[in-house]
Design goal:
Layout lengths: L2 E7 L6 E12 L2 E9 L5 E10 L4 E8 L2 E6 L4 E6 L6 E6 L3 E4 L3 H10 L8 E9 L4 E17 L6 E10 L5 E7 L2 E5 L2 E6 L8
Parallel strand pairs: 9-10
Antiparallel strand pairs: 1-2, 1-15, 2-3, 3-4, 4-5, 5-6, 6-7, 7-8, 10-11, 11-12, 12-13, 13-14, 14-15
């Protein structure tokens, strides 16, 4: 069960946004990721709880940020309920999308797991519903993911495979690179892995 810490920053001007302390694990029915997010001051500002099935589909999502809350799952596309900070109003949403995304590194692992692009086979497209802090308002977007390289790195145990993906925003044309190994993000725009207490899990 990998445990560790990511540092989060603005991908454009590198302003520190805080840290995400996480643990995650694979199981016979899928994968689960749980994290607590802190501001640069150390104050708690949010949390993520995401569970995928064995095909990479979100069977449970719970996000918290600035007293906003989102609960969602893959149902008729994806379906969610967003609750305001006062707790007096809740709005339901549904989109013909494949999965969710957002600021957390968890969503990069989840999207790669869902799409599973293969080396040399070109890009795979997905429609995603994004929830980003501080208010977790939903936004639908289209991305393509292509696997550019898979590089083995020797360790004391089995080799770790570092996968390099090119991610395209199909609306804006913006491109960026994501590096993953197993169920851990090595680096991505706005995300750096700062510590890891145990090796990444591998998906079968």
């Amino acid at each position: 069960m990998p445990r560790g810490r990511y540092s989060l920053h603005d991908p454009h001007d590198h302003t520190p946004l805080g840290e995400e302390h996480f643990h995650c694990a694979t199981g016979p029915s899928g994968w689960r990721y749980v994290s607590q997010i802190t501001a640069p001051s150390g104050d708690h500002i949010g949390s993520v709880d995401l569970t995928l099935d064995d095909l990479g589909r979100p069977i449970r999502l719970e996000l918290h940020a600035s007293a906003w809350q989102v609960r969602g799952a893959a149902l008729d596309g994806v379906t969610w309920v967003r609750t305001d900070p006062t707790g007096t109003h809740a709005t339901e949403g549904n989109a013909r999308a494949h999965a969710f995304t957002g600021a957390s590194p968890a969503f990069l692992i989840a999207t790669a797991r869902l799409l599973r692009p293969t080396l040399g086979a070109g890009a795979v497209r997905a429609r995603l519903v994004a929830f980003t802090p501080p208010v977790l308002a939903p936004r639908t977007l289209d991305q393509s993911w292509a696997l550019l390289n898979s590089t083995p790195h020797a360790t004391d145990n089995a080799p770790l495979i570092a996968d390099e993906y090119q991610v395209n925003d199909l609306e804006t044309g913006e491109q960026h690179t994501v590096h993953l190994t197993g169920d851990v993000v090595l680096s991505a725009p706005g995300i750096e892995l700062e510590s890891l207490d145990s090796p990444p899990s591998t998906f079968t």
